[in-house]
């Protein structure tokens, strides 16, 4: 797998960074706030000084250029919200407290995300969203899937009727960018279907060999992160006192 380190022509004034999990580009100033949210909220990576898997970089830029930001600012697009005094932070505002409070409301509290009508059983709502995600990942519409994920769809959802997860579907369809998005949101490349086959197997059997290699890479990255968090070991380090 070739990793890229690029200088890019970017649409924003010196965004510098990307929030991989939110699909948006951010400036140096706002990046510090994103980092304070934690990786479970916003995974940030430098656009020019970091090495990127090409398809992950493509996924972020596809989302950013197709309006992913509007997912997180949905209610602010309503003129009534502006009239009520609710507005997004602007470049002239101070980082603390104005920008930092806005960023936390936007990405951590999800204060401006489109809310679904209330139902008595929240579990059914999450299941319905996850089933929609399961179906949507066979297409190239990343924004739809990000919107579903923002509303509570589960990236690792096991479809009881289909016997697969969304990542199995994306892998079979050769939807590499969808696969990248799902993995960012917690999908497991090694998760078995009802017959024990993984998304990696699906990609290989469908002839999507580059996608299969990328999923193997993602699985190793996941294993390395688990080893670090659970054992305090970095990749390649030998454990002490264990065979």
From TrEMBL:
Q: Which stretch is the leader sequence?
A: 1-18
The entry's keywords: ANK repeat, Metal-binding, Signal, Zinc, Zinc-finger
Question: Positions of the ANK repeats?
Answer: 162-194
InterPro entries hit by this protein:
Ankyrin_rpt, Ankyrin_rpt-contain_sf, ARFGAP/RecO, ArfGAP_dom, ArfGAP_dom_sf, GIT-like
The record, for SUPFAM superfamilies, names: Ankyrin repeat (SSF48403), ArfGap/RecO-like zinc finger (SSF57863)
Which PANTHER family does UniProt cross-reference here? ARF GTPASE-ACTIVATING PROTEIN GIT1 (PTHR46097:SF1), G PROTEIN-COUPLED RECEPTOR KINASE INTERACTING ARFGAP (PTHR46097)
| Record's protein name | Plasma membrane permease, mediates uptake of glycerophosphoinositol and glycerophosphocholine
The gene it comes from is GIT1_1
